[in-house]
Amino acid sequence: MNEVVKELKKELKAVVTVATEPKFFERGLEIAEKYRSFAFLSAGIHPEFVKEISQEQIEKAFEWLKENEKSLVGIGESGLDYFWVKEPEWREKQKGLFEKSIALAKELDKVLVVHTREAHEQVIEILEKNRAEKVQLHMWGGNSFVKTILDHGWFVSVGPVVKTSKKHQKVVRDLPLELLLLETDSPWFGLKDSEGKPLRGLPTNIKIPAEEIAKIKDLEFKEVWEECGKNAVKLFKLPIRI
User: Fold this and answer.
1) Residue 236: DSSP 8-state
2) CB-based contacts of 114: which residues, under 8 Å, 6+ apart?
3) Which pTM was predicted?
4) Is residue 194 very low, low, confident or very high in pLDDT (cuts 50, 70, 90)?
5) Strands 72-81 vs 111-117: parallel, antiparallel or unpaired
6) How confident is the model at residue 190 (pLDDT cuts 50, 70, 90)?
7) Whole-angstrom Cα distance, residue 95 to residue 41?
8) Distance between CA 208 and CA 218 in Å, rounded?
9) Angstrom distance (rounded) from CA 121 to CA 91
10) N or C: which end of the chain has fewer CB within 10 A?
11) Three-class secondary structure of residue 13 per DSSP
C-alpha cells in the first residue's frame, strides 16, 4: 500500500475511497488515518447488500458512522439497485435504508454518495422527498433527469464506462463541467489494455473519464482535469489546493 500511495501522489493530490459495507469500515478508516490529507473516506451500506444485513447490523453501522463522523467526508454508497434486487419487499428495505442514509448525511453535513441501477426515477423521487442536499450521483446514467440535477446543483461522478456507454456520454454532454467529478468505479469498471488484459483498478484511471469528457465537450484535457479536481475539493470540503 505504501508504494501504491507513493506512486499515486506523483499524479494526484487526493483520493476519496468508499467502504460499501460495515465489514470494510475499519479498513477504510485505517487507510484514511494512515494517509491523512491524501486519502479520505466515505462509508455506508450499498443497496446490493440489503438481503445480507440485519436491522441490528444496520443500527450498529449507523452508530459507527456517527461515532467516526470527523473521519468521514461522505455517507454511502447508498441508494437503489433494481438490477440485483428484484423482490418488492427487499426493494422497500432498500428505500428505507436509503432514506435513513439521506437523513444521516444531512445531520452530519456530509456528502451523500448515491448508487443507482435501473431505478433512476425512484432515486430522484426519494432524494427530492427527503430534500437531499450535498449529493454525488455515482455513475449516473439517467439523461432524462439532467434538468432536475441542475435545479438542485447535485454532482455527477463520471467513470471509465463513459468511454463505451452512450447514455453516460449524453449525461456528460448535457451537464456543465462545474457539476462533474471523476471516478474509477474500481475494481468493477471492466476496461482492458491494448493486450486485452483487465486494467488494474488504480485511482489514476480517472484520466480515462477526463479524456472522454474533454472529447465530448471539445475542451482541453487540462481544463477538465483541473475543474473536476476543484469540484471534488469544493463538494467534499477537502483541505487541499488544486
Assistant:
1) H
2) 76, 77, 78, 79, 123, 127, 135, 136, 137, 138, 140
3) 0.95
4) confident
5) parallel
6) low
7) 23
8) 15
9) 14
10) N
11) coil
- What SS3 class is residue 1? coil
State the sign of the Cα–Cα–Cα–Cα dihedral 143, 147, 150, 151: negative
Measure Cα distances from 152 to 15, 93, 171, 179 in Å: 25, 26, 16, 11
Grid coordinates given for 100: 435513513
**What is the per-residue DSSP string for 45-76?**
--GGGTTT--HHHHHHHHHHHHHTGGGEEEEE
Q: End-to-end distance of the chain based on CA atoms, in angstroms?
A: 24
> Is the Cα dihedral 183, 186, 192, 193 positive or negative?
positive
Report the length, in residues, of the chain. 242
Question: Would you state the cell numbers that stand for residue 6, as one nine-digit string?
Answer: 507513493
Relative to beta strand 180-182, strand 15-19 is: unpaired
Distance CA 152, CA 93 (A): 26
Q: How far apart are CA 67 and CA 196, in angstroms?
A: 45
The residue assigned the cell 449524453 is 170
**Collapsed DSSP state (helix, strand, coil) of residue 80:** strand
Sequence-distant contacts of 56-59: CB under 8 A, at least 24 apart = 57/22, 58/97, 58/100
Q: Which residue type is seen at 111?
A: V
